[in-house]
Each structure stands twice: as structure tokens, then as C-alpha cells.
């Protein structure tokens, strides 16, 4: 693949993809670009909506049919479910690690093997989350291990 960057005097950045056909590589690039520009609607208080960038989210957890987004210094709630987060933001590092949790791979600082094929992942904010044995092979594959 050939990559060319041109600097020009415009008000808005523009990305043009030229391809012979839309293959898996182009679809991956389009998914990545789309997910980087989308914001996730969330709230801390009922009447105050905020729009979060996916890269600001450390991990997401479903508790009692509510979805919580954990950021560096705050916890938010959203209407997204785990499947939607995983599918929409897989290209920017979101990965399912259990039935109730999705983690942003870019915020994992270390991994440690645990009993029964599970993995303990330490997040950059020093929290530890457990990767279930069902999702451990997927995590390893996504990290290239």
C-alpha cells in the first residue's frame, strides 16, 4: 500500500482513499477512521451529557443491566451495551475480556497469568481486571502474543 500525505491550506482535514477494489484492508482502515471520529454519549449526572472519545475509555463494565465507562479520573454511564462497544470500537483497541467487560487494549500496562487459564490485566490507572479463560485466547491474539 502506498501512503501519501499532502500539506495544504484548508479549513478541514480530508482523507481520500484510492483503491482498485474494497478489500479487507480498506474496510479495516475505514472502520478505524470512522471509530476515531465518533464520540460516545455518556453521563455522570442525569441531566448532563458528555461526549467521550473512545481513546479516553480505559474499560467498560456491565453491572445490574447498567453500562459503566471507566476513564482516568471519572466513571460514566451510557446506553451502549457491551456488544455495541466491542463491535463499534474494535478497530481502536476495544476487546471483550469477559461476559460483563470490554477493555481498551491501549490502556493495559501489564498481564499476569492466573489459575484456570485466566489472565489478570493491570490497567494504566492501577486497577486490575480479570480476563476469563474463554476470552484469554482472543486477548492474546489481539495483542500478538
UniProtKB/TrEMBL annotation:
* Molecular-function GO terms, alphabetical: DNA binding; phosphorelay response regulator activity
List the Pfam families: LytTR
Q: Which residues form the HTH LytTR-type domain?
A: 46-145
Q: Which domain of life is it from?
A: Bacteria
Q: Which PANTHER family match?
A: TRANSCRIPTIONAL REGULATOR (PTHR37299:SF4), TRANSCRIPTIONAL REGULATOR-RELATED (PTHR37299)
Tell me the protein's name: LytTR family transcriptional regulator
Q: Which organism is it from?
A: Romboutsia weinsteinii
The organism's lineage is: Bacteria, Bacillati, Bacillota, Clostridia, Peptostreptococcales
Amino acid at each position: 500500500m502506498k501512503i501519501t500525505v499532502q500539506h495544504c491550506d484548508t479549513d478541514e482535514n480530508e482523507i481520500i482513499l484510492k483503491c482498485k477494489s474494497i478489500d479487507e484492508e480498506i474496510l479495516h482502515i475505514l472502520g478505524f477512521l470512522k471509530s476515531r471520529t465518533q464520540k460516545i454519549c455518556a453521563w455522570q449526572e442525569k441531566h448532563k451529557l458528555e461526549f467521550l472519545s473512545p481513546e479516553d475509555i480505559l474499560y467498560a463494565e456491565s453491572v445490574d443491566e447498567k453500562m459503566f465507562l471507566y476513564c482516568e479520573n471519572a466513571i460514566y454511564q451510557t446506553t451502549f451495551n457491551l456488544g455495541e462497544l466491542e463491535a463499534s470500537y474494535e478497530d481502536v483497541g476495544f476487546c471483550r475480556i469477559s461476559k460483563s467487560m470490554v477493555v481498551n487494549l491501549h490502556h493495559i500496562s501489564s498481564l499476569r497469568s492466573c489459575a484456570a487459564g485466566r489472565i489478570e490485566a493491570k490497567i494504566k490507572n492501577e486497577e486490575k481486571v480479570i480476563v476469563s479463560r474463554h476470552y484469554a485466547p482472543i486477548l492474546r491474539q489481539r495483542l500478538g502474543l
